[in-house]
């Protein structure tokens, strides 16, 4: 009997599912956009029931598209965005909407804590800077502003762990996701009460379930979940891992020093190292698969989702009965009618702020009547790539500059955008085969946990492979180097005004 693995990835703007054979073939991948709910400026939420319905829909879609029957699915791997928060009552029902990883409701409180010196204790403990959307600050925000929500809460979960609970009926947390969300100390893979105590919510410790390792089994598909998803009841579901780690596995990166650049909701740059930097100078330091491994990440919510917003807001016709691909094809045609050396506009991709600048706001600068859609698209492509370059250069403070990097995500699906990325970073980019690398990564992990491969290295070697490579064009590299300097100057010039622009 043929065996297949299902991978699920619940991101900040969509939920995806894909089915893989044990040789890595992607047999059926589906996705469903889940636009954030914004009940107030700076808030980014998601209806947990709509998230569950979206996941059920993409699982059924992946099964139908692949032609795989549920009985042949050997295991289900799952990942999801880090940080954020899902609060459940004693019956396992949400007490409020889930919070997304780019939510800024606690930004002013983070400023208060920084002024009070709390970050000086937080960074040595977690190895991470304070983020408004981290679970502990969010708990403090709920206590101050919506105490009734917290009073009714019995359990606190991340996105992935909430969805796994819906699949298996078992409430459990997972180490790498808890570590990414700063709920575990950097030096250990077990809870430390000092983290919650920094924010005055130490009494919320009982909300968090036991955390198990990503290589442990977390449960099996329940009869109820089987009816909703089309999967077979009893199909094993391993713990899974954080999305950063899943992307490393799904693109084929396992060894130290191999760098991955992802263009998605967040622009992520990450590399495995065998030592920890504890002073907060390395962006986000995440637990690896084992205690001897560290994943270093630099990034912000300033990447391909900015282009999705641009298309939804200015290109796609409201109410038009046309596939989303039509609007993207229109943008590709428009940018093809422009030249890189034309005087063009600049785009600052801070639609959701930035971790180090929560009041930052997006901008299109330098528009003129002679410009058209293609110039705006080029500006968005370049602005996203420029912010990626800023994070890439920050990561190089702790990691050696690679000769090439793995490149995945929305931007990697566009040839023009990939060329801009390679030139802006002055880096050869290897684009792996497939489309959903978070889903592929947890499928690889699930196949290993279920014994289909002797170890993770073998599974990665069997289930990943290259698609194409893009070398930086020398002329475009030099042109974009000059435009990058202007981008940084514009970014700096607008910084004093972000507070007035933020609501």
Q: Any idea what the CATH architecture of the largest domain is?
A: 2-Layer Sandwich
Uncertain regions: pLDDT < 50 for 5+ in a row?
none
Give the number of domains: 2
CA gyration radius, whole angstroms: 22 Å
Helix count from the secondary structure assignment: 18
In percent, how much strand structure appears in the residues?
15-25%
Structural class: alpha+beta
Q: Could you estimate the helical fraction of the residues in percent?
A: 25-40%
CATH superfamily of the largest domain: ATPase, nucleotide binding domain
Distance between the termini: 58 Å
According to CATH, the fold-level topology of the largest domain is: Nucleotidyltransferase, domain 5
Shape: globular
The CATH class assignment of the largest domain is Alpha Beta
Numbering strands along the chain, what is their spatial order in the largest sheet?
Answer: 15-16-14-13-19-20-21
Strands, total number: 21
Sheet with the most strands, sense and barrel status: 7 strands, mixed
Query: Which whole number gives the mean pLDDT?
Result: 92
């Amino acid at each position: 009997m043929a065996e297949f693995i299902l991978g699920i990835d619940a991101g900040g703007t969509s939920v995806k599912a894909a089915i893989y054979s044990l040789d890595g073939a992607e047999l059926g991948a589906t996705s469903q956009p889940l636009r954030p709910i914004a009940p107030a400026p700076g808030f980014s939420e998601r209806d947990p029931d709509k998230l569950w319905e979206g996941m059920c829909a993409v699982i059924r879609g992946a099964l139908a598209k692949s032609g795989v029957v549920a009985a042949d699915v050997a295991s289900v791997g799952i990942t999801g965005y880090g940080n954020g928060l899902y609060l459940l009552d004693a019956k396992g029902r949400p007490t409020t909407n889930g919070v997304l990883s780019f939510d800024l409701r606690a930004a002013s409180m983070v400023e208060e804590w920084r002024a009070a010196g709390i970050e000086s204790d937080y960074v040595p403990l977690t190895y991470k800077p304070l983020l408004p959307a981290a679970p502990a600050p969010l708990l403090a925000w709920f206590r101050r502003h919506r105490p009734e929500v917290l009073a009714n809460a019995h359990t606190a979960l991340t996105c992935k762990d909430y969805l796994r609970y819906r699949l298996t009926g078992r409430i459990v947390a997972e180490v790498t996701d808890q570590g990414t969300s700063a709920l575990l100390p950097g030096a250990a893979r077990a809870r430390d009460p000092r983290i919650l105590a920094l924010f005055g919510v130490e009494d919320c410790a009982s909300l968090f379930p036991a955390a198990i390792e990503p290589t442990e089994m977390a449960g099996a598909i329940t009869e109820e979940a089987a009816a909703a998803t089309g999967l077979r009841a009893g199909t094993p579901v391993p713990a899974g891992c954080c999305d950063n780690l899943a992307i490393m596995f799904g693109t084929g990166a396992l060894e130290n020093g191999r760098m991955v650049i992802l263009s998605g909701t967040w622009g992520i740059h990450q590399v495995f190292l065998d030592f920890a930097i504890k002073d907060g100078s390395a962006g986000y330091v995440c637990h690896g698969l084992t205690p001897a491994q560290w994943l270093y990440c630099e990034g912000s919510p300033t990447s391909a989702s900015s282009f999705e917003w641009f298309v939804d807001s200015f290109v796609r016709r409201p109410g038009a009965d046309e596939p989303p691909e039509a609007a993207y094809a229109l943008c590709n045609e428009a940018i093809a009618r422009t030249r890189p050396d034309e005087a063009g506009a600049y785009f600052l991709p801070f639609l959701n702020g930035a971790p180090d600048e929560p009041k930052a706001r997006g901008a299109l600068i330098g528009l003129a009547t002679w410009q058209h859609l293609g110039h705006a698209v080029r500006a968005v492509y370049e602005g996203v790539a420029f912010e990626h370059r800023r994070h890439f250069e920050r990561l190089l403070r702790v990691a050696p500059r690679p000769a090439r990097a793995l490149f995945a995500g929305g931007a990697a699906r566009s040839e023009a955008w990939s060329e801009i990325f390679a030139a802006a970073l002055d880096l050869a980019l290897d684009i792996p085969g497939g489309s959903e690398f978070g889903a592929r990564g947890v499928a690889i992990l699930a196949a290993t946990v279920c014994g289909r491969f002797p170890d993770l290295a073998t599974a990665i070697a069997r289930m990943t492979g290259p698609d194409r490579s893009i070398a930086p064009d020398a002329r475009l590299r030099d042109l974009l180097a000059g435009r990058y300097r202007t981008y940084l100057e514009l970014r700096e010039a607008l910084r004093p005004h972000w507070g007035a622009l933020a609501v």
